Amino acid sequence: MSKFAIVPGSFDPITAGHFEIIRRAAAIFDRVTVAILVNSEKAGTFSPDERLEAANAAIRELEKDGITNVDARVFRGLTVDAARDAGAGYIVKGLRNTSDFDYEFGMAEITRRFDENIETVFLPSSPEFMHVSSTYVREILKYGKGDCRAFAPGTEEIIKKFYEKK
Ligand code: PNS
After folding, report:
1. What CATH number should be reported for the domain holding residue 110?
2. What is the pLDDT of residue 151?
3. Which position among 2, 40, 42, 165 bears the catalytic label?
4. How many distinct structural domains can be found in the chain?
5. Which ligand 1 atom lies nearest to the CA of residue 8?
6. At what angle do helices 156-164 and 48-64 cross, to 10 degrees?
7. Which residues are within 8 A (CB) of 91 and not within 5 positions of it... i.e. 6 or more apart?
8. pLDDT, mean of residues 141-166
9. N or C, which terminus of the chain has less Cβ within 10 Å?
10. Could you read off the pLDDT of 105-120 as tens digits, one per residue?
11. Of these residues, 18, 23, 24, 51, which one is catalytic?
12. Chain centroid, CA 51 distance in Å
């Protein structure tokens, strides 16, 4: 049976750390959807459309490397519902540290209670991305010159353009 996973997150914006997890998920699963979760109570820095455009730019970089089983969609509500709506059997999350573990372990438990057919799979972050976060990227944008390695490949210009308009 085909194995289909979502990689959920705020992706506000997508980072090099997210990119690495998505790339590795694409090697494990037959199909991967980057699920951009929009929180109705938290506006975020980038709009859902901007986050989607940046994610699609990163996906185009994967395609250049022959990775063609990834797409991106925006979802509202719970992650478990996003997985169900998409028809995915797996939720993939990257873990950078013990704080991520504590949070994601709870999320995985809640997900299982809602739907025991959806399995959560954790991928450990590579050391070079352990300190990369969307917050870090937003701070680079806000305070000027920064570490471009924090941006997902293919997204730097697009993310800067969106940010400069704000
Ligand atoms: O990129 P992030 O901010 O670490 O992503 C977190 C996200 C969006 C995956 C997480 O907050 C989430 O799943 N939010 C959706 C709401 C939800 O499913 N909550 C579960 C508790 S009931």
Report:
1. 3.40.50.620
2. 96
3. 42
4. 1
5. 9
6. 160
7. 5, 6, 7, 8, 79, 80, 83, 108, 111, 118, 119, 120, 121
8. 90
9. N
10. 999 999 999 999 999 9
11. 18
12. 10
Q: Is 166 a catalytic residue?
A: no
- The verdict on whether 18 is a catalytic residue reads yes
Report how far ligand 1's centroid is from the alpha carbon of 61 (Å): 26
Q: Ligand 1 mean position to 37 CA, how many Å? A: 7
- Which structural domain range is residue 47 located in? 4-165
pLDDT at 1: 82
Distance 79 CA to ligand 1 centre (A): 6
> Where do we find the tokens 């750390």?
17
- Taking CA atoms only, the protein residue closest to ligand 1 atom 12 is 79
Mean pLDDT of 6-30: 98
Share of the chain above pLDDT 70, in %: 99
Instruction: Report pLDDT digits (tens) over 33-92.
Output: 999 999 888 889 999 999 999 999 999 999 999 999 999 999 999 999 999 999 999 999
Give the integer Cα–Cα distance in Å for 68 and 70.
Answer: 6
